[in-house]
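name: query_chain
kind: protein
chains: 1
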Amino acid sequence: MNYRTFKLLVIICILAMQTSLYAQKESGKLNAKNELTNKIGLTFSSLGVNDIFGKSDVSDYSYEGKNFYTLGLTYIRGLNKWLEVETGLEYSRHNIDISPNIMPGENMFMRTQKTEMNLLNVPVTLRAKFLKYFFVNAGVLIDVDVSNSVYFENQTGFGGIVGAGLNYDFDFGLSVFLNPYIKAHSWIDVGTQQKVLEKGFRLGVAYDLPKILKKK
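structure:
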């Protein structure tokens, strides 16, 4: 584990503790009759585009994002009737085509190579609900690049996420949601010139723990 990764993990722990303390504080302000959501679930993201911007010092290549998918664990905590905080841990795999920038006189038989970028993502977002079934969400994104690729710069850093979605809560505690979003990976400058912009759809299922425990 390098020093940069260690610092990011420390920041992740601090953010998680602060989020938990704030949620508990807001919880105490509510009337006992108003139950806060306390959900845990799984998410899958794909069906979008992943573009790579910026010139890299790593090599003279052109990059084209082909497709991606993300698997995640999510935790959603209600702050009040209309506002929730969401965090979790995600694994993303981005499939990328790399083409050499051929200059006159160079080997014309150099072909496009297929490679992949693997990221661990920790999103920390706020979700504002409206009109019963809809929500908008936005927040920060912490990336840890576990690719160790020589073809593109390390994407460990900070980014952002914004989106909107549709959520439906069943009476027995299950929730399903669809969340179109835009993610900017490593957008805050941490020495990385290449930036990854991801646009896709996130599908999730989550269980409201208080409702399930009550039935037991």
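note: The two ends are 43 Å apart (CA to CA).
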